Amino acid sequence: MSREIGPRAHLASGPGCSVEHEGEVIHVHVGPVSLRLGRAACEALTTALARAMVTLARARRPRLVLAPPAAPEARATEVQGSARVEQGRVEQERVEQAGEAAPRELAALLAASFSALELAALLGPQERDGLWPWEQVTALAAAMQADPRRWASVAASLDQRYAAWVLRLADAPARAAFTAAREAADPAEFSGILWALLRRRRASLAPITARLGEQLVVAALSRASP
To answer: Do residue 53 and residue 112 come from a single domain?
Structure first.
C-alpha cells in the first residue's frame, strides 16, 4: 500500500535508495543521485539491471559438470586418498611454517654466540648440572625447539646480537645468505648469517644451514689456533 509524500506517491525503498511516483514521472533516488524517468524508460532500466545482475552471478559462479556416480569402493578409496593428501599438506605446512631449526647448527651457533656464564643463565641450574659445555648448548638447542617461550627468549638475545645481519637478510633469498657467507672471514659474521636463516625455521633451508654450521665450526677453530 503506497503512502503519499506531498504530491508524490512512495512506491518502494531499500538501503540507500527509494522510488517515488508523480504523475507520469518516476523518481529514482540512489544516494545523492536522483533520476526522473518516464514509465517506459524506468521499465527498460529495470530490465537492464536485472539482466546485468544475472550475468554477473553467472560469471562468478563456477561451472559445474555432472559426473556419473562412483561405486562405493571407489568413493571410499577417493576419500582415503584425499585424507592422506590433506594430512601430508598440513604436515608439510607445519614443517615449513613452524619448523625446527637443525639441532647441530643451532648448537654450534649458541656455542659461538654465548659465553659459559651466559649459557648457564639461559639454561638454569637444573638443566646445566653435570653437563659438559657441548652438552649444555645441545640441551639449550633442544629446549628452544620444544618450548616456544624458550625459543622466543633466546631468539630475542640473538636478534639483538646479530641485528645487522637479521635486517640485511630478512627478505633476502637463501642464495644471498650463502654468497655472503663465502665472503665472510670472521666467526661473528658466520654466526650472524647462520642465525638470519635459522630464525626462519624452514626445513627447506636445512642443506644451507648445515653447510654454514660446518663452516662456523671451522672458522672458530681457525681463529682459536695459534
So the answer is: no
